Known about the structure:
Elements: E1 12-15, E2 22-27, H1 28-31, H2 41-44, E3 48-54, E4 65-66, E5 71-77, E6 80-84, E7 87-91, E8 96-99, E9 105-108, E10 115-121, E11 128-131, E12 136-140, E13 144-147
Antiparallel strand pairs: 1-2, 2-3, 3-10, 4-11, 5-8, 5-10, 6-7, 6-9, 11-12, 12-13
Amino acid sequence: MKKVNAAQIEWETQRSPGGRYGRDERKISEALGRDRRSTDLIMRHPFDVEIARIPPGVASCPYHSHSEQWEFYSVISGHGKVRHAEGSLAIEPGDAFLFKPNEPHQLINDSSENLYVYIVADNPIGETCYYPDSGKWAVKSPQYRLIRGEPLDYYDGEE
Length: 159
């Protein structure tokens, strides 16, 4: 068994060039030894767990869907909204929600305080992502590639 304390895991920061998207992540599964690039399911782990901290006034990432991946979210603290195919819903501490493959989603912090969320994903191999707002696809193997007829930057068409 391997044990970690989430409070002792360093935050990893992601921000878009224009500032519309951003989050800090405590990658719990990676701290427990997950190798996200491995195709060996023992090394890869069957699921991925992280704590995301989304600053006020930004979305965690562009609106997207996964071809194979399921994602479970549980709000730890803070308030915001989750955008989905039918619109958006307010979220608050204690809320939990699930996105199946091909269900577009996005977390948005429209409050004045940080939004903290547990994210658990089932981590399939051969996963792709679609970004409806910009018409892009992300292909994840072995390098992370974004395409729309030609290679693109991750935030192209999003800000």
